[in-house]
Amino acid sequence: MVRFGAEMVFSSKDSTITDEDIDRIIAKGEETTAELDAKMKKFTEDAIKFKMDDSMCPPFSCDPHCSYVFAFC
User: Fold this and answer.
1) 5-38: per-residue pLDDT in tens?
2) What is the 3-state secondary structure of the chain?
3) Is the pTM of this model over 0.85?
4) Where are the domains of the chain?
């Protein structure tokens, strides 16, 4: 957790930050972290499956994920 300046914010008597505000900030951070974790998991899975020889693509494939897509697709 980032603490730079936190003591000043939390010790201030004039602060309008409530516990609910802090809870919302933390919840948003957890949500964003979960989204990034899911993206990284998918990226990792895709990277593991990656091959340079197109062995996963059938000949004359119209699949846009294959490295070659023919004009008739």
Assistant:
1) 667 666 767 778 788 988 999 999 999 999 999 9
2) CCCCCHHHHHHCCCCCCCHHHHHHHHHHHHHHHHHHHHHHHHHHHHHHHCCCCCCCCCCCCCCCCCCCCCCCC
3) no
4) 1-73
Nearest to 72 by CA among 19, 16, 61: 61
Q: Which candidate, 26, 1, 19, 53, places its Cα nearest to that of 10?
A: 19
Q: Cα 10 from chain centroid?
A: 30
Question: Longest C-alpha distance within the chain, in Å?
Answer: 71
Q: How many Cα neighbours within 13 Å face the side chain of 34?
A: 6
Q: How far apart are CA 30 and CA 57, in angstroms?
A: 38
